[in-house]
């Protein structure tokens, strides 16, 4: 039997600007079910970080509980990680981010971890616009406890045992836009061509970048009647547009039908080029985004791609006007200014 | 591109690089697994069926399989396939009882084999069990041909040779040793149904025009003749200072044998640069280990003679210059000529065919180079009854090629004697079956070890140089043999893909350690498709596996180049669209027609 990934890699594996290959971004071998959508998302994160030449030690992966929250073990093995409490990933991420703002933060969560137990945290981390990539691996069921319907399961969706879900789903992307998230996207684990540039854009975006990824549970929710199966998602996917970076890659692979082009400048100077498929939709206009999502829902479509982006609104550090450096660069004197300072603060509060 | 037809046996055969490269197509991974399982007898018999001389080849094979080995493409060194074969031969149990048991009921046909080397012996082994009456003629005292006369005993002990030649001769072959066939016409006049010529390339090249050649003749010997003289004990000593001319394996055997017969200062002098020498790298290493100096880029100018006695040789210094086509020219460097002292000189600069005993008016055509016209597939000459094989057919090659020729010639002879069309060749025998035993369990060792190639231990130089019969290589001991066997990547366990089961979850693509698998849109042009893979498939000697169209209209494309056959694609596949299927391929022998 094999349960170790062989150490050999393709001798001609491409290298990025740091001289690293994909191998430096991989994690340990996945223990999720064979064919799990989550593994594809892990591979996509690996690919995106590789392509952006991110130093692995400058990444922190923070997760809650669930199949999705196990995945940080399976990507970026040379990065930092914190597998936290159920639904409490945003709190831990907030603490880490406040201590060191110079890292890339991946918050990895699932539909249970976000839309049920972690709903409160989800709502507030969006309000605070914490600079992180918040990925929900959304499979519409509780895979770790044998596939009960989750809060994102569509009404009328059938489980593997034939049970029909009677409840309305939580639409995480709509909710995120409603709450003022500054980057909202939706995608599908089986569409790397879309997901890789989305994750790259999310990393570049300053502020909370939320990506809701349909990620089929191959064991408990890939049956006919399910609205989160590979076949259903593929049939009902409708992309808002294709996304690419200039000058990261010059040509857009023409797999989608033609539309119009829009350029969005990110805070670090990167230009994100959007090839829009829906001409009336404007990703920088909240109303337009909400409209597009509601229309898609009415047509039983799963709208994918970038849905909404706001590059104006500052992140949590801007809002709180925190110090420039990370804690670990400030030195003891700045971090512990001494008795006198403490007395002064206390006095100002009296 | 059109979907790959994996049901064509040659597709999966080509994936098994070692087997594909082997002229006899020995099922290498199959016998290596047997060695790892301590089933040495079975491993030996798989070899014996395919290459007839496992013990001999396990010591002396030219190993075309090893440069082809996939392992060499993912790390430094290929699996030591050849020496693992020896492990099987050294540790086997009773094999005689597993071989065809005579006496065989006669089928009324008579065959003559001329020459007793590997080609003829392979024909004999394949045809004897079918009831042919086989007469083997050889000028030497015993069977084996060049394996006996040219391969020194310190590389191939006589017992090993005798044993494996014996297995064949014991099948009821009528041998006539010490018999030089002087006329093919006379043989044809006897009532043989077919004649096989396996007389090798018996003439060593000379340097007849080099100044001093005649005067110094007593101290100059032709390499292969001299080696035969040593093997048959006509020669037992040589001068202290020896020059060996030539850079092939015969030159290596000559210099190493010289060291054992009294040569103290033995120098190999070769025209070409060291890296271009024809000798196998390991033979060069072994020679240098025995204090033999190799002088490359030296072209012989003359034999120097003083008072009728050889004193040495003069050489011109040259350098190799390659033109754009890679063709080599040796240009003088202008440095002064070099004189090297010598008491004796061995000329090992190649050998050639010679058929003085074949009359030219028998209807057997010869070409402009005085070589018989022989069909490359059937091995039939232009005389329908006469077949050729081994070095005699197309010039000097090696033992394993001769064996492969022998198998095919035997097929032809068998078809011919039955009055059948010999151009209709039998299809190979193949099997393909799943190795799946459980969720993470396969019937082969799928984990890939990272061990580097193990060295074969050698006996001390101080011992081996004193006795020309003392075998230098000791062979792997069993624990090392096991570890070396585990380096095999099991390339015969194929990644078999069924498109209509695939749900395109990408799990295989994500897990594949060597990035072999890509899901993409198809292209008409193969080169374009090769460029679209995760890592472009630039090695066109390796095939790509293209699936039928998938649901999304894409195809799965797998580059076979550096696939580790680790089975992770199949383990991560939720629908068993991937399966690890063991592929067995065997060249059909005369016996199985």
Automatic annotation (TrEMBL), chain A:
Organism of provenance: Cyclobacterium plantarum
InterPro entries in the cross-refs: 2-oxoacid:Fd_oxidoreductase, THDP-binding, TPP_enzyme_TPP-bd
PANTHER family: 2-OXOGLUTARATE OXIDOREDUCTASE SUBUNIT KORB-RELATED, BLR6744 PROTEIN
Protein name per Swiss-Prot or TrEMBL: 2-oxoacid:ferredoxin oxidoreductase subunit beta
Keyword tags: Oxidoreductase
Keyword Nuclease: no
Keyword Oxidoreductase included in the entry's annotation: yes
Pfam families reported in the protein's UniProt record: TPP_enzyme_C (PF02775)
Every Thiamine pyrophosphate enzyme TPP-binding domain range: 65-213
TrEMBL record, chain B:
InterPro entries with a match to the protein in the record: 4Fe4S_Fe-S-bd, 4Fe4S_Fe_S_CS, DPD_II, FAD/NAD-bd_sf, FAD/NAD-binding_dom, Helical_ferredxn
Gene3D superfamilies: 3.30.70.3270, Alpha-helical ferredoxin, FAD/NAD(P)-binding domain
Function, in words: Involved in pyrimidine base degradation. Catalyzes physiologically the reduction of uracil to 5,6-dihydrouracil (DHU) by using NADH as a specific cosubstrate. It also catalyzes the reverse reaction and the reduction of thymine to 5,6-dihydrothymine (DHT).
E.C. no: 1.3.1.1
Native source organism of the sequence: Cyclobacterium plantarum
Protein's UniProt keywords contain Iron-sulfur: yes
EC class of the enzyme, as a word: oxidoreductase
Reaction catalysed by this enzyme: 5,6-dihydrothymine + NAD(+) = thymine + NADH + H(+); 5,6-dihydrouracil + NAD(+) = uracil + NADH + H(+)
Protein's recorded name: dihydrouracil dehydrogenase (NAD(+))
Domain 4Fe-4S ferredoxin-type: 493-522, 553-583
Cofactor: FMN
Record's subunit section: Heterotetramer of 2 PreA and 2 PreT subunits.
Keyword Transferase: no
SUPFAM superfamilies reported for this sequence: 4Fe-4S ferredoxins, alpha-helical ferredoxin, Nucleotide-binding domain
Coiled coil start-end: none
UniProt keywords, alphabetically: Flavoprotein, FMN, Iron, Iron-sulfur, Metal-binding, Oxidoreductase
């Amino acid at each position: 039997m094999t349960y170790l990934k062989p150490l050999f890699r393709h001798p001609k594996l491409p290298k990025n600007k740091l001289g690293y290959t994909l191998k430096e971004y991989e994690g340990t071998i996945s223990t999720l079910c064979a064919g799990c959508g989550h593994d594809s998302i892990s591979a996509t994160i690996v690919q995106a970080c590789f392509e952006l030449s991110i130093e692995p030690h400058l990444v922190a992966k923070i997760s809650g509980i669930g199949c999705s929250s196990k995945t940080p073990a399976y990507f970026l093995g040379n990065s930092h990680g914190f597998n936290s409490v159920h639904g409490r990933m945003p709190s831990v991420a907030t603490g880490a981010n406040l201590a060191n703002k110079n890292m890339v933060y991946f918050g990895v969560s699932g539909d249970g971890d976000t839309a049920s137990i972690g709903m409160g945290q989800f709502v507030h981390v969006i309000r605070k616009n914490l600079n992180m990539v918040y990925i929900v691996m959304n499979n519409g069921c509780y895979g770790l406890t044998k596939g009960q319907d989750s809060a994102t399961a569509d009404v009328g969706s059938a489980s593997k045992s034939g049970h029909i879900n009677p409840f309305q789903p939580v639409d995480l992307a709509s909710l995120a836009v409603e709450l003022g998230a500054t980057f909202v996207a939706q995608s599908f684990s089986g569409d790397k061509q879309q997901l890789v540039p989305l994750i790259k854009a999310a990393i570049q975006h300053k502020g909370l970048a939320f990506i809701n990824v349909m990620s089929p549970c191959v064991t408990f929710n890939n049956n006919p009647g399910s609205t989160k199966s590979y076949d259903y998602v593929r049939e009902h996917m409708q992309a808002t547009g294709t996304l690419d970076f200039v000058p990261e890659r010059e040509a857009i692979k023409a797999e989608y039908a033609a539309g119009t082009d829009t350029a969005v400048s990110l805070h670090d100077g990167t230009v994100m080029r959007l090839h829009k498929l829906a001409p009336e939709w404007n990703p920088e206009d909240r109303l337009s985004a909400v409209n597009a999502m509601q229309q898609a829902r009415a047509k039983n479509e799963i709208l994918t791609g970038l849905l909404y982006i706001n590059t104006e609104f500052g992140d949590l550090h801007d809002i709180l006007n925190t110090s420039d450096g990370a804690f670990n660069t400030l030195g003891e004197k700045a971090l512990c200014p001494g008795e006198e300072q403490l007395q002064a603060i206390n006095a100002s509060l009296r | 591109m059109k979907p790959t037809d994996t049901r064509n046996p040659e597709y999966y055969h080509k994936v098994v690089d070692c087997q594909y490269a082997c002229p006899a197509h020995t099922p290498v991974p199959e016998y290596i697994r047997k060695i790892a399982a301590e089933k040495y007898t079975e491993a030996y018999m798989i070899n014996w069926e395919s290459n007839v001389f496992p013990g001999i080849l396990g010591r002396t094979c030219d190993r075309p399989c090893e440069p082809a080995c996939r392992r060499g493409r993912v790390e430094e060194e290929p699996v030591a396939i050849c020496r693992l074969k020896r492990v099987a031969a050294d540790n086997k149990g009773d094999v005689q009882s597993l071989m065809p048991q005579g006496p065989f009921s006669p089928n009324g046909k008579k065959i003559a084999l001329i020459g007793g080397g590997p080609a003829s012996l392979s024909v004999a082994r394949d045809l004897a069990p079918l009831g042919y009456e086989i007469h083997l003629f050889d000028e030497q005292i015993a069977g084996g041909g060049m394996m006996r006369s040219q391969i020194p005993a310190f590389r191939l002990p006589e017992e090993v040779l005798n044993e494996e030649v014996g297995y064949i001769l014991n099948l009821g072959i009528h041998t006539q040793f010490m018999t030089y066939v002087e006329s093919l016409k006379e043989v044809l006049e006897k009532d043989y149904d077919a004649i096989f010529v396996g007389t090798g390339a018996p003439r060593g090249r000379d340097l007849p025009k080099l100044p001093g050649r005649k005067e110094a003749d007593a101290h100059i010997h032709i390499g292969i003749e001299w080696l035969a003289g040593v093997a048959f004990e006509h020669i037992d000593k040589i001068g202290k200072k020896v020059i060996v001319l030539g850079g092939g394996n015969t030159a290596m055997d000559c210099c190493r044998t010289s060291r054992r017969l009294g040569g103290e200062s033995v120098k190999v002098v070769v025209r070409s640069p060291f890296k271009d020498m024809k000798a196998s790298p390991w033979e060069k290493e072994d020679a240098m280990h025995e204090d033999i100096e190799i002088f490359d880029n030296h072209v012989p100018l003359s034999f120097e003679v003083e008072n009728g006695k050889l004193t040495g040789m003069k050489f011109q210094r040259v350098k190799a210059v390659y033109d754009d086509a890679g063709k080599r020219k040796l240009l003088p460097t202008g440095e002064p000529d070099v004189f090297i002292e010598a008491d004796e000189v061995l000329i090992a600069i190649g050998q050639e065919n010679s058929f003085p005993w074949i009359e030219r008016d028998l209807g057997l055509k010869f070409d402009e180079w005085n070589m018989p016209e022989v069909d490359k597939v059937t091995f039939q000459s232009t005389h329908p009854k006469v077949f050729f094989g081994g070095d005699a057919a197309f010039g000097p090659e090696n033992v394993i090629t001769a064996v492969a020729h022998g198998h095919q010639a035997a097929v032809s002879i068998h078809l011919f004697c039955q009055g059948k069309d010999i151009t209709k060749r039998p299809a190979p025998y193949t099997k393909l079956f799943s190795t799946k035993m459980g969720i993470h369990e396969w019937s082969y060792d799928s984990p890939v070890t990272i061990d580097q190639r193990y060295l074969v231990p050698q006996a001390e130089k101080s011992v081996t140089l004193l006795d020309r019969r003392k075998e230098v290589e000791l062979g792997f001991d069993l624990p090392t043999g096991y570890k070396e066997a585990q380096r095999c990547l099991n390339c015969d366990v194929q990644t078999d893909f069924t498109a209509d089961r695939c749900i395109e979850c990408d799990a295989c693509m994500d897990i594949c350690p060597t990035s072999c698998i890509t899901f993409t849109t198809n292209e008409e042009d193969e080169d374009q498709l090769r460029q679209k893979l995760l890592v472009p498939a630039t090695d066109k000697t390796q095939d790509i596996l293209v699936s039928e169209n998938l649901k999304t209209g894409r195809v799965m494309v797998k580059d076979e180049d550096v696939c580790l056959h680790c089975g992770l694609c199949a383990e991560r596949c939720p629908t068993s669209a991937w399966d690890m299927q063991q592929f067995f391929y065997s060249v059909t022998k005369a016996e199985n027609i």
